[in-house]
Amino acid sequence: MRISVIGTGYLGVTHAACMADLGHDVIGIDIDAEKVAALNEGVLPFHEPELPQVLQRALASGRLTFTTSWSQVAQSADVHFLCVGTPQQPNSPAADLSQVNGAIAALAPHLDRPTLVVGKSTVPVGTAQRLTAELQASAPAGSDVHLAWNPEFLREGHAVADTLEPDRLVIGVTARSDEAILREVYDKLLRASVPLIVADLPTAELVKTAANAFLATKISFINAMAELCEATGADVSVLADAIGQDERIGRRFLNAGLGFGGGCLPKDIRAFRARASELGVGDALSFLDDVDAINQRCRTRAVAAALTLCAGSLKDKKAAVLGAAFKPDSDDVRDSPALDVARELQELGAIVTIYDPQANSTAAQRLPSATYADSTQEAVSGAEVVLLLTEWNEFRSLDPLTLKDLVAQPIMIDGRNVLDRQLWADSGWTIHSLGRGTLS
Ligand code: UDX
């Protein structure tokens, strides 16, 4: 099929490369000419395992190109996937839809034959209905231009697998013919028995925000339990293992620690809450304020633990921060809990050195006042407190004995509950794990 992908961020590049990998002819469009030129050379603007190989394979096959020309996109494709960002507005919890609106306004005047536009961006419920009216009003083909919604559930660090082997496909459509087109796009996945859920437009939009709200709530639930555990001497990891054995609950997304960050969960729950208020059902989602507040408290609790273990003052104390990305296998520092903690440590007077295997340069743009090291060893050298804040594999397997020789004071805050506490304590460290207390 002839497909276009509008927007070449995380979602767009992944979708474009994977659709070409499935055998479609794909043209990606972005307003950023430099990014387009780099992508045509096979250069990715972010770190994502497996994606460089898929991108290069797709470019080499001749089935994928990137452009900045709307007329070329309209000529080359019959199905247009809308993959632009919907960040949080600067001074409001609501979503900023300017990229979505801009893309539709730019594309519509070029649509002079029957076309299907498919939204993948995460939008407030009701957006698809509004966009349908706008598209049909300004496209020369009028009501022959249809809109469908096909929410995306990909996780950073697993983007390729989540696109080519998703748990499910969800499509919101207003016509059988649109469903048929999307079935053809995803034919290979459907043949591989990926479940397909066909819905109306508002349901499809809501599926995405509901899924993210549920995941955020699950993480904040276990982090609320972590606060209870700290107050009672209980162990949140054992608690999570025990309740997670119940299949109705499940163990995944019950890892207590610094909580969630990134470009999706935090802004999506805020936008969802804001949209519910606009719709007059704000009370139904008021619990998401608590989910957000619990999540923010995780960061404060990590800083408080560092302060307590450093005898009540971080002034001029050397702090080593391991991890800056919002999660492992990513260089994304948007709303990163790790970087927030590093910033708070600095505000309390600490001298902060950060090491992240991939995110040093993205972090340095957001927090230039910190020092950045090229290895764990360099970061912890002379440190009076070490904080493990993103659970990269190389941190999980750190050797407490080797590290002890490098630090000035063997104090570790395990913000992700990945270290063997007993081993670290037996090796002479004082270790504090969020939701499990201090051991030495
Ligand atoms: C999320 C959704 O999972 C995905 O379906 C959606 O399309 C986009 O948003 P992503 O932001 O890539 O994906 O990250 P995810 O793996 O969901 O992790 C989100 C955050 O939660 C990370 O900061 C992670 O460290 C944290 N987390 C996750 C926990 O604190 N505990 C857990 O048990 C799981």
Brief account:
InterPro entries: 6-PGluconate_DH-like_C_sf, NAD(P)-bd_dom_sf, UDP-Glc/GDP-Man, UDP-Glc/GDP-Man_DH_C, UDP-Glc/GDP-Man_DH_C_sf, UDP-Glc/GDP-Man_DH_dimer, UDP-Glc/GDP-Man_DH_N, UDPglc_DH_bac. The chain is of the alpha/beta class and 440 residues long.
Key descriptive features of the protein:
single chain, alpha/beta, Rossmann fold, N-(1-d-carboxylethyl)-l-norvaline Dehydrogenase, domain 2, seven-stranded mixed beta sheet, six-stranded parallel beta sheet, 19 helices, binds uridine-5'-diphosphate-xylopyranose, UDP-glucose 6-dehydrogenase activity, UDP-glucose 6-dehydrogenase, NAD, UDP-Glc/GDP-Man_DH_dimer, NAD binding
Descriptive overview:
The chain is α/β, with parallel strands linked by helices. The chain has three domains: 197 residues, Rossmann fold (3-Layer(aba) Sandwich), CATH 3.40.50.720; 83 residues, Orthogonal Bundle (N-(1-d-carboxylethyl)-l-norvaline Dehydrogenase, domain 2), CATH 1.10.1040.10; 141 residues, Rossmann fold, CATH 3.40.50. 45% of the residues lie in helices and 14% in strands. The chain has 19 helices and 15 strands. The strands form three sheets. The protein has a seven-stranded mixed beta sheet with strand order 11-10-9-12-13-14-15. It has a six-stranded parallel beta sheet with strand order 3-2-1-4-5-6, with helices on both faces. A two-stranded parallel sheet has the order 7-8. Helix 10 packs across helix 12, helix 10 packs parallel to helix 13 and helix 13 crosses helix 14. The longest helix has 32 residues. The radius of gyration is 24 Å and the shape is elongated. The N and C termini lie far apart (62 Å). The mean pLDDT is 97. Bound molecules: uridine-5'-diphosphate-xylopyranose. The site of uridine-5'-diphosphate-xylopyranose has 20 residues, from helix 10.
